[in-house]
């Protein structure tokens, strides 16, 4: 920690700061500049209590941490890329993966048609929501366990592993029984009890970025998974909230090189939520592939206009097949298969 | 719903939109303007399926809802102000309430000293965290049940009712056993399963605004409480996330007149989280009182520099007593007691 | 400046950083922590070249400035509050000032009716736009010089000094001829050439905060006024851009204690732009007064529904008179007149 | 315009709205829904006065525009892509263009070395700032006319056309004399007087997106160029301001498909400002190419660590050459040359 004192601080006020630094187990190191005295507090910032409280002392101007707070998810902890084995598929490896399927599981017919179609087009995993977090209590909340069973059936028929959302600690066992990957949604990205429950199931976890989550907070939320002894974490960018109203969210593709730099975990891009409009999804997928994403998560529906949730952002089966074709040269250019 | 068609849409494309509108149970009403044809879809937007999916149709330019999505929390549902009876205290009535106490319960001594001091200064409820949601898994997570027991002891000694945070569905029964008000934190503001669990305990619920939650989303999250048959909801503004880095969050005091206009539920202001700096809290409290807030939620600690969490934003006991004095003329000017 | 090196940097890479620090005129001071080596670069950060470029060196983790970049606007430069004398009125003194009038000057009748009415209600300055910055080139751009002449006439009739917007360097002389205070609008808050031109007229300058301007940037924009030898600067908060769509902007009232803490210049609040809705303005004015603002800037129009610009946010004459009455107890509570 | 009345509005209040709609030249069309009466105001929203003021009437719930406010920049006005001829180069055509060079022109040597190097690596235009808008008045403000002369010299030696920033109306003639493209910077994106002055020089204009500018506002700012009879406009995304602090700005690559959809003007991506970090620029360039950008604007410096401005975001000459190589397969995959 670096503690910057205000200009012209009295000796006794400086001494009080030094005493407090020592009390919390750090070793102080004084540096006198032209305008300010700066104190370095030497010690492990992750095991010692934080010194940020000093910022409220009248003689202190600012307190700046030096060390990063994430450990297990960090690139330093694991210099090579991690890969996650999902029923034989590797996420984070040379092969580019595509997770596709409906926003919500609505019926056996809707799900099976979609599953076969996305498989034919080249998708390698099937997505579909059985439990849905909805802004209003009056909106469709998902088919629940019935939806999970339909997903299992679709997996059996197509061989595609399943990713589905977990939104209650109390469903962790149930959802893990059916799903190959547990998805933690945006609104639960800092629901730490849910993160712990998800980690403990042992299933791979896809952690979406919160609506206005800083990179550092996202890494630390991921740390909850690894610190609970589940190494199979992937991050998923799905757009953040900004002032812009043209799109539902602003997809932050810079997260791809940033996550690659800071962490060893795979990064997945969800352009459907990001754009909120199917007509922008194609360009965003191309960008994600070119920038080095490990996988895409795409909403596909046999008839988006009839979808029970988020129809505006779901692609048609034909649109998805066309997209998969158009992505090929970019996957090649990015050195992937 | 209002559906705006693109300029110069073919008759058959217009007919397809009309057909879909009817299929979903609305009655279409056509209006031909100079550049666009606009279709009003007449029907109850809260019971019918949404038409927003039409926005993805190529012939449609935009879809605009006409009706508000919140019902039970709305001012129309309950034209007079709701009041919440908490162990005899009325929140939302003529008397202005002050909830004060430490960010985290750390020890019996710390809690009791604070409880007595804030009571002496005029606080009417005691706040204190027993379960703490922390950005990093390596930070202090609260004393848990031991903290709840200390809160109950402080209540017994001072007579102050208790407000404390609920952050896991699985703790709902336990926390409700001790607390007079359940607090739902910012990071769980759209953890709908937790909202339902909180509502079902029957305890009054204080719902903090999410980090980047729109007013409409906040009202709808509150709707989860009332729709689960718990009428005792209060909203709590604690600052939203913006680009500004001087303060930890940007306290949005305009929520006071907005919530008063849109809803009948009380509005509480938490300036400690908003500012993230004790030295700004005093001015923010004055503003909140003047603008018509029903209560304040303030972090107070006997020694902020030694606090185990968020020390920088906690006031000292003396600072709090001074604040309560300074607030008096503003409480009077606002027509409160 | 504080330069944090990455963990385990080679000696020669550390030496390169030290060499560069010296080359730019700073004296390096090394501090070896448990994980990182931290280098303090001692020297005046305002006269030396910035070291932030080091952040792009591979061996460097981060670079943190220690000194504040603003000088003349800072509280340290002038520990007591500055007051600005505008035709005998003091802004920033014990007397609370209210600037009121129409968004745009539209006609002699509209302006004079408003000017007399706001004076009667207690306003002490007259606002009115003659040159209007408009989002679209097809919107009303103001009456220009004709508007300035009408403002001068209204001043003559009522005795109220005038504040009006300057939006072109080329109009600086012209507008300064008529106006008592030059207003720099939000969209020009970092139009540094305009700031310089405004400063050089010698007229007091009211600098609105940019749409997404950080406090530090705002202070530095103000520095352009003082550094060009014009001491008469006031800051004006008018709402920042956030994700919220209920209001046009989010009025950040925390700027009042922050500007008071960081600077000696007066702070004015413009709730009309902030709220974008006349029905929220009253509460915001009360909050601003209670929090210690020096003045309000309020849009008032004899018939808002017929206004040529921003009608939705303008108050009626009666609404304004009522507001002035309601503000009195809060002005008293805040220790103002 | 669509005007939504509040539920249960009295007949006379409805009549007042209808009267006002007619007074402003629209033809009202009434639609009675289950909860609300909705009025369509039929007429050209671009030539008639706006009805948004009605939003402040007590009987009105909301007012929604139906028509887009931009005309000349819109895709409807010009269904095929516009191309801009800059000294024989076409921007917006099949050939992908790269504008590269230093943030600021610092010296003849620095500029010429860079110009030759970026040309060798494949850049097709030279960028360099002669007038620099700086957050603080104490920072380097550019070499001014001397910088322009150096740019002209570099053009003569390399044949690369020049793009440089215009930041004062009073320099419009001077800068246009030297520059092939005038750049309008982020902080001046809604400095409408500058936009008009730039348009009138007849030079092509590159309009950067403002720090927190909505797409609609950006299109309307562009409209100022075309409405002043200059058809040669290109938009340039350079990152918007969000809550994230890891990068300096959040580069919004979704602007590429959005601008392509809404407008016929070319779109250029500036990843240097967006990332604020040279180490992220490479991935962002790949994404921009894949998503269909027409050109890149990249900061390159022979020795970023010694740069007089924004060193952290400038690439080295070697880095730039490597980038150009790595971009080739993506340019091919995107169907460009």
Provide structural commentary.
The structure is a homotetramer of 337-residue chains. Chain A is of the alpha/beta class and 337 residues long. Chain A contains ten helices and 14 strands. Chain A has an eight-stranded parallel beta barrel, surrounded by seven helices. A four-stranded antiparallel sheet of chain A has the order 2-3-1-4, with helices on one face. The longest helix of chain A is centred in the C-terminal third of the chain and has 17 residues, at 317-333. Chain A is elongated.
Poorly predicted runs of chain A are none
Radius of gyration of chain A, taken over Cα atoms and rounded to an integer in Å: 23 Å
Largest sheet of chain A: 8 strands, parallel, barrel
Number of beta strands of chain A: 14
Oligomer: homotetramer
Instruction: Choose one word for the global shape of chain A.
Output: elongated
Helical stretch count of chain A?
Answer: 10
- Beta-strand residue fraction of chain A: 15-25%
Encode the helix/strand succession of chain A as letters: EHEEEEEEHEHEHEHEHEHEHHEH
Q: What's the arrangement of strands in the largest beta sheet of chain A?
A: 7-8-9-10-11-12-13-14
Average pLDDT figure of chain A: 92
Biggest protein-protein interface? A-B, 55 and 55 residues
Calculate the terminal CA-CA distance of chain A, rounded to whole Å. Answer: 45 Å
State the share of residues found in helices of chain A, binned by percent: 25-40%
Category from helices, strands and their pairing of chain A? alpha/beta
């Amino acid at each position: 920690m670096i503690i910057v004192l205000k200009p012209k601080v009295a000796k006794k006020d400086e001494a009080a700061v030094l005493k407090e630094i020592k009390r919390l187990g750090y070793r102080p190191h004084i540096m006198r500049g032209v305008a300010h005295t700066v104190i370095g507090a030497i010690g492990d910032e992750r095991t010692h209590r934080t010194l940020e409280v000093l910022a409220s002392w009248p003689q202190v101007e600012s307190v700046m941490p030096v060390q990063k707070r994430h450990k297990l998810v960090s690139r330093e902890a694991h210099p090579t890329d991690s890969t996650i084995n999902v029923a034989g598929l590797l996420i984070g490896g040379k092969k580019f993966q595509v997770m596709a399927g409906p926003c919500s599981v609505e019926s056996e017919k809707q799900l099976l048609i979609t599953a076969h179609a996305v498989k034919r087009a080249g998708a390698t995993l099937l997505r579909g929501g059985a439990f849905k977090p909805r802004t209003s209590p009056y909106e469709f909340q998902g088919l629940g366990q019935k939806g999970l069973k339909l997903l299992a059936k679709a997996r059996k028929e197509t061989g595609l592993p399943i990713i589905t959302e977990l939104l209650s600690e109390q469903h962790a066992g149930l959802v893990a029984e059916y799903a190959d990957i547990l998805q933690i949604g945006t609104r639960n990205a800092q629901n730490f009890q849910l993160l712990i429950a998800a980690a403990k199931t042992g299933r791979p976890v896809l952690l979406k970025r919160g609506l206005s989550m800083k990179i550092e907070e996202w890494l630390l939320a991921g740390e909850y998974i690894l610190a609970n002894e589940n190494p199979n974490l992937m991050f998923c960018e799905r757009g953040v909230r900004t002032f812009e109203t043209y799109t539902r969210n602003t997809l932050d593709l810079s997260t791809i090189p940033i996550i690659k730099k800071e962490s060893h975990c795979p990064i997945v891009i969800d352009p459907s939520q990001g754009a909120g409009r199917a007509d922008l999804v194609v360009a965003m997928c191309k960008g994600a592939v070119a920038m080095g994403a490990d996988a895409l998560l795409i909403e596909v529906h046999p008839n988006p206009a009839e979808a029970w949730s988020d129809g505006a952002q779901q692609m048609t089966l034909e649109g998805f097949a066309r997209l998969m074709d158009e992505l090929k040269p970019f996957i090649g250019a990015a050195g992937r298969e």
